Amino acid sequence: MWRASKSFMLYRVLVAVLLAAVLLAACGGDDDDEKQDNKEQTTLNPDFKLGLVTNVGGTISDGGFSESAHLGATRAAADLKLDYAYGLSRDDQDYAIQLDRLIGEGRNIIVTVGFPMEAITYEYATKHPEVYFIGVDHSYSDQEEIPANLIGLQFAEDEAAFVVGALAGLMTESDTVAVIGGIEIPPVVKLAEGFQNGAKYVNPDVNVIIVYTGTFGDPEKGTETAQDFITQGADVIFGAAGPTGYAGIQYAARQGVWVIGVDQDEWRTNFREGSLEGSDFVLTSALKRVDNGVYQAIQNVVSKQAVGGLLTLKTVDCGVGYAPFHQTEEKVPANTKQMMEAIWRALAAGTLQTGAQFTSTTAPESLAEGAMPDVPADAPQLSDCEN
């Protein structure tokens, strides 16, 4: 009897140990800083492992820049059968920590997200020639040459901003529109200047207020800036400052002010598919298809087509554009929609330039009343970029 009880107890212990092992394996890679997909090792590409590091304050569900990069990396990992992990940066000290961790795991394709990571990405690319680095919003313009293992991914964000700026110029009744900018860095300046030039292209009388808040992660600052704009009479506000801008346009929309989002379709992300108060005042968003750019860059590396240098996506590449109108579909006049598409097509065809640059801006001449931009018959169609 004693021997039978002992055997039964041993059996129970073994079962408990095995169950704990299974649960531990199931929970294995799930923490705040890292997520690994595609765990079926037998099906994974043996030559490449993928990693991604966000900028400070960026998350994989922030409704903007970092989330879009993560979506592109996730799609590439699934399609190209790559083991994938990401790291979140709570401050700029985390950049090196996360990069070292990913490299230590043997990841030889690493995406770094955001202009503030440009310097450290270049440094690591020179120190680790065996690893491919893809820097989102990186130009490396102050370097003599770009290593063969480094891709600077850029977007013509000024083109997307120009189109939505034209929308603002046509929708305003007060002839005052505004931009909540983040840190005054090249991509943000191009967004702000592109928006300003687009508004003035269709409405030479419009006053465009631009404020660089100096931060991407201060929602309170965004709200305060939006309040100031409304006090100054702005009736269309463009948020180009990450979470700082998200908070600003959410506040403005709740006050009944037209707003325009950035990077992703903010009606879907930060206004939660129209479930938040003010969603019916979201005109559109200036889309920056970071997901497509990241995917293409990763694909280039895996297919051995990668060459050190810049990969720039423009309107003609479907790299930038604007989101659907959603709840404002009936509030935006048909002729305004026609103007926006004509401007998009002219930019894609190269017959129209935004004039927005980081160091200087030369705005195109304003359209005469009733005039339309020059659009060649063979210009790309907006419908070509619906997917």
What does this structure look like?
With 387 residues, this protein is an alpha/beta fold. The protein folds into two domains: 136 residues, Rossmann fold (3-Layer(aba) Sandwich); 181 residues, Response regulator (Rossmann fold, 3-Layer(aba) Sandwich), CATH 3.40.50. Helix content is 39%, strand content 18%. It is built from ten helices and twelve strands. The strands form two sheets. The chain has a six-stranded parallel β-sheet, with helices on both faces. The protein has a six-stranded mixed β-sheet with strand order 7-6-8-9-10-12, with helices on both faces. Helix 2 runs parallel beside helix 9. It is globular and about 60 Å long. The N and C termini lie far apart (71 Å). The N terminus is likely disordered.
Low-confidence stretches: 1-41
| CATH structural architecture of the largest domain | 3-Layer(aba) Sandwich
| Total number of helices | 10
- Secondary structure class reads alpha/beta
Residue share in β-strands: 15-25%
Number of structural domains: 2
CATH level-four homologous superfamily name of the largest domain:
Response regulator
Strand order of the largest sheet: 2-1-3-4-5-11
N-to-C series of helices and strands: HEHEHEHEEHEHEHEHEEHEEH
Helicity level: 25-40%
What does the largest sheet look like? 6 strands, parallel
